[in-house]
Amino acid sequence: MDPALVHHFYGSKERLFAAAMRLPVIPSEVLTAALTPEAREPGMSLGEHMVRTALGVWENTDVLATFLGLLRSAVTSETAAAMLREFIVDSILRPMARAAGARNPAGAGGGEAADADYRAALAATQMVGLALARYVLALPAVAGASPDDLAAAIGPTLDRYLTGELRASRG
Question: Is the pLDDT of residue 127 over 80?
Answer without folding.
Answer: yes
